[in-house]
Amino acid sequence: MTETMPSAHDTATVDLTTCDLEPIHIIGRIQSFGWLISFSSDWIINHVSMNCEALFGEAPQDMVGVPAAGFLSPSALHDIRSRLQVLGHGGSVERLFEVDLRGDGRLFDLAIHASGRSFVVEIEPHEGGRRRDYVSYVRPMIDRLRDAESVEKLCASAARHLRGLTGFDRVMVYRFDADGAGEVIAESLNGMVDSFKGQHFPASDIPAQARRLYTRNMLRIITDVDDPTVPIHPATGPSGEPLDLSMSGLRAVSPIHIEYLRNMGVKASMSVSIMRRGKLWGLMACHHYAPLRLSYSVRTASELFGEFFAYLLDQKETDAAMGMRLDSLRLHDEIMARVAAGGTLVDAFGDFSLSIGRVIPFDGAVAWIDGEFMRYGVTPDEAQFSKLARFLNTAGASTVWSTDRIATLFEPAAEWADRAAGLLALPVSRTPRDYIVLFRQEHVREVKWAGNPEKPVELGPNGARLTPRSSFELWKEERRGQSRPWTEEEVQAADALRVTLLEVVLRLAEIANAERDKAHRQQDMLIAELNHRVRNILNLIRGLVTQSKDGAKTIDDFAEIVGSRIHALARAHDQVTQTDWSPSSIYNLIRTETDAYASHSLDRVVIEGPDAMIAPSAFTTLALVIHELMTNSCKYGALSDSRGTVNVVLSRGDDSSLEIDWRESGGPPVKAPTRRGFGSTIIERTIPHELGGSASVVYPESGLHALFLIPDEHIATFATPTASPRDPGPVPTESEMRDDGFFKGAALIVEDNVIIAMEAEDLLRGIGFEDCRIAGSVRGALDLIAETEISFAMLDVNLGKDTSEPVARALYERAIPFIFASGYGENAIQSADLGNVPTVTKPYSERDVKNAVVRLMQDRL
């Protein structure tokens, strides 16, 4: 309609190498009503148009390479230099009016822009007679456009005002579709020409290359389609490249486009780009049925008018979108009020759908929540929708997704084409699973094309060269298999509703099953808290790894230090998770650390005072401090020999805070450390920094004395301490274990993570197993049990999608002892018919595995 592109075979007129937008315009030719010269940065003339002899009195070939000052008056040169000083980016054009170019009294209008390393000056005669400041017309024109009530009326008013400014026979507002085709949505006529309003033009009329050029150069004009073009001399510049005229207003257009206009009977044309937020929304296309030359001032005013119109258009469309958003907010309030009145999910879905339909019209709606199917109106059935839901998981899983031709994208939709042709899907869960989907039935409609869109171009007589279509007679197309399209405003409103719909679905689910929803919310809160804590723990572990290297003399020392600290954190987390993330006992924390590092000295660690239940958020912090105190005592303090004791006194402050008084005595003489290692830093600084409490550590010769204060905000309650767990009994010796047959056969390790499996193998070999077999699946483990003499097994509970319960039952039936390994703690797989199976919690150490084996042996003795 506005610009047809030349073929790549038009090598005589089309440059294929220098234009960064692909071959979309003629390089080296301009329209004959103006002149063009280009300068390099040192003001040497690089190019001139072949008609410049009439203007400068010199042959073009005699001008190239000569300083510009030899042809331009000093005042003109000064004005041009000044404009170049303020010239913006490569896509901007500066203009000068009424310039005495030669100093002979003749006035010209100039356009200046940069082209690579050259500066291009386009020259046109200034219109004579009474001067008119056409730019001043733009403001009152825009003021009148502001009163338009809708986008349609705004576009109609803009076409009328631009025709009044320019005098064209026809001015159209042309909007691009998503596929590149366009539609004339508004026009203004002189009354003597045919109307194109409502007609569609195929994408090939304005190819993508041309549309990209329109985003850079806002105005294109053809004064006379029969006017010959003028070559530029020389064909290439000093660098050997043709001059890029992408931003030129005088450059000639493709002969294809000239022929296209002639086929329409148009003698002159102009287009003004309509940009919206950096994208080409459409064009203001102008046609005239006789040659029409517009002065530079009129064209400048037209371009300025187009830019202001684009701002108003964006404002109108944004206002419409905001109106839809307000409707969505009102819909939110209305739906929530209805849901608050009670009812089940099924009962409420009909009313809910009606409310949505007042904002986004549809013919049917489906809710697919947690695998439950509900529908309203005309929709596919449940079996058909289940297939569609799987498709939506890939097509529109994280945002609103729409189409008016679902059968072209999803073939099974042809089965229910009589019920729905288009859909708008709103995901209402964080993962691809749950949707509210609106359906529209087939809408047979008639589209008016300016000529047959199926044959926009034909092969011409010159071989493989495209020629423009010659027929623009009204051609009607009946479109089937499509619904009414979802407008941009409807999609935006749906996107604004998505979060509301999620809330609504959750609220309806709450009404249908309040207890289940309550459990889900508690689970979400627990997951969020666990996620937060795990992230903190991971950061803490990273710090432990980094800081622990200073206190290690060897790699083994480093591994032992880091491992012990990580296991202290793991034990603390076990205590918290065993109580469902509720406050945990500090007595148990101290006993756990004592059992882990001073099991031979249980009677020498005495705890006195009330037990304090520590909040989960503070428990791991306190666990690190107790761990460092305990390990230091075992290495250097009271528990490093057989005589010393540790006395821990817990007391409640007046403000319900917790005071921990740790005193060591009877051990080796103590000296204050000469340097502060990471362990000392944990003891002295962690509680003040993490919990807002206080810590004091002194080193009298009789033994370390540490005093800590934990603020009441971290203390849930105080309680009477429970008795210490009973002595587990005698520990079997390695000889007794061998006699019992533990090491006779192979040890089976069932673990789907190969790294963890290898580590478990090393641990079991360290205990005494010489033959270890590894299986990563239930099938593999059962095969090993059937084929190999297994004397002991260590089973990871979770094996991808399966659990190791079938393996445990096979071992139990064969009376083969086994233990569980799990990240879920003691509550892994505990079944009465399997007995009391010991469980080690990940991350586990050799001590943990050995203690579990000992417990297993004690149960067998």
Describe what this molecule looks like in 3D.
The protein is α+β, with helices and mostly antiparallel strands and 861 residues long. Helix content is 38%, strand content 23%. Among the domains are: 136 residues, Beta-Lactamase (2-Layer Sandwich); 144 residues, Histidine kinase-like ATPase, C-terminal domain (Heat Shock Protein 90, 2-Layer Sandwich); 127 residues, Response regulator (Rossmann fold).
The geometry reads as elongated
> How do the strands line up in the largest sheet?
1-11-3-2-6-5-4
Report on the biggest sheet: 7 strands, antiparallel
Mean pLDDT metric: 79
Fraction of residues in helices?
25-40%
For the secondary structure, the number of strands is 37
> What multimeric state do the chains show?
single chain
Strand content: 15-25%
N-end to C-end Cα span: 95 Å
What value does the Rg take, in angstroms?
42 Å
Output the CATH class name of the domain at 576-719.
Alpha Beta
Q: Helical element count?
A: 22
CATH level-four homologous superfamily name of the domain at 576-719: Histidine kinase-like ATPase, C-terminal domain
Given helix and strand content, the structural type is alpha+beta
Tell me the CATH topology of the domain at 576-719.
Answer: Heat Shock Protein 90
Q: Give the low-confidence spans.
A: 2-26, 446-457, 459-472, 474-478
Q: What is the correct CATH architecture of the domain at 576-719?
A: 2-Layer Sandwich
